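Query structure, 225 tokens:
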């Protein structure tokens, strides 16, 4: 588990600033949802935390370490994307195990982690099947499983449910929330869906034009004018 701290974080593309010095402290085990209109900088912020995007100014801390120049792999943070890459020629088990593809862990430990992730995500009956036999929600769970086996100290979710139909979205909201309660891992979750934010977040952070407009619990934001 890990705290994540953003201090005066800036991102520029050429001469254009898209993140204007944001400050945000995320507690160990907290479920923070970043919301805001398209283009406000949610995804860029997430990618900077993951180390997939260089920062232009300020500081990012994970735990007690400044990670500004740290390699993404050394950050021990797992990203779950909207367009999950699932390999059709591999079984569900192999797709999940791919998260440990370059890991030096012993095979027995890798196998154990894949079994555990499968069990937690309700995929045990499907482990030896091909992804073609899976529903959209199950595929999304495979993508989460691939991140889980890395035993990350935090999960970053970038619009993970936006490709799913309404019914599956509702189900996956509950499942991701339950997963968080079970693992207790810090989560930063990007969405433009108000319902996801209100039902899943410990704290909602509202962004606009590269700034943080407001932050608070769902109840606090709901009651604010
Ligand atoms: P959101 O995730 O909230 O929709 P983004 O973080 O994707 O927003 O984008 C924030 C801003 O940065 C937008 O104005 C977008 O056009 C701009 N942007 C994102 N990526 C690039 C890039 N590679 N080059 C230039 N501008 C970019
Ligand atoms: P490399 O990228 O050099 O192959 P990695 O160990 O970082 O080595 O990644 C191995 C595989 O694990 C990747 O190809 C990818 O499918 C998956 N993976 C890597 N990073 C993540 C992550 N943050 N979250 C989930 N899966 C990941």
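Result returned for the query:
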């Amino acid at each position: 588990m890990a705290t994540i701290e953003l201090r005066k974080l800036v991102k520029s593309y050429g001469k254009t600033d898209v993140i204007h010095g944001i400050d945000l402290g995320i507690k160990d085990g907290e479920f923070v949802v970043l919301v805001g209109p398209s283009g406000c900088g949610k995804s860029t912020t997430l990618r900077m935390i993951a180390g997939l995007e260089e920062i232009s100014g300020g500081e990012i801390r994970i735990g007690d370490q400044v990670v500004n120049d740290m390699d993404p792999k050394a950050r021990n943070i797992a990203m779950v994307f909207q367009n999950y890459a699932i390999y059709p020629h591999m079984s569900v088990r192999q797709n999940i195990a791919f998260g440990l593809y370059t890991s030096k862990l012993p095979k027995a430990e890798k196998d154990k982690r894949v079994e555990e992730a499968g069990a937690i995500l309700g995929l045990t009956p499907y482990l030896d099947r091909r992804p073609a036999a899976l529903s959209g929600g199950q595929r999304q769970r495979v993508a989460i499983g691939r991140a889980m086996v890395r035993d990350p100290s935090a999960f970053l979710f970038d619009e993970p449910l936006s490709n799913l139909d309404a019914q599956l979205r509702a189900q996956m909201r509950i499942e991701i929330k339950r997963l968080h309660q079970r693992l207790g891992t810090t989560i930063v979750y990007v969405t433009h869906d108000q319902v996801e934010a209100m039902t899943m977040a410990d704290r909602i952070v509202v962004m606009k034009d590269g700034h943080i407009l407001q932050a608070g619990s769902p109840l606090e934001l709901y009651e604010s004018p």
